[in-house]
Design goal:
InterPro entries: YjiS-like
Domain YjiS-like: 17-45
Number of domains: 1
Number of strands: 0
Protein name: YjiS-like domain-containing protein
Strand content: under 5%
Helix content: 40-55%
Low-confidence stretches: none
């Protein structure tokens, strides 16, 4: 499991990072609610969706932060 280290930045940048985490948390909660047909439409299996939805909000690719 990897850990994200916050960059040395001002409070505005840190607030944006927390905002990204909240967005990801929301996306993952929505992913939990999709049925098999909807998941197939976006190219995911039930297992893949469940695995993704159980990841913590801060566990995301760096490109989501825009660093």
């Amino acid at each position: 499991m990897s850990h994200i280290t916050l960059p040395k930045a001002g409070w505005i940048k840190r607030a944006r990072i927390v905002g990204h985490w909240l967005d990801v948390w929301t996306e993952r909660r929505h992913l939990e609610r999709l049925d098999e047909r909807m998941l197939a439409d976006i190219g995911l299996t039930d297992v893949e969706a469940r695995t993704e939805s159980q990841r913590p909000a801060w566990d995301l690719p760096r490109d989501r932060f825009g660093w």
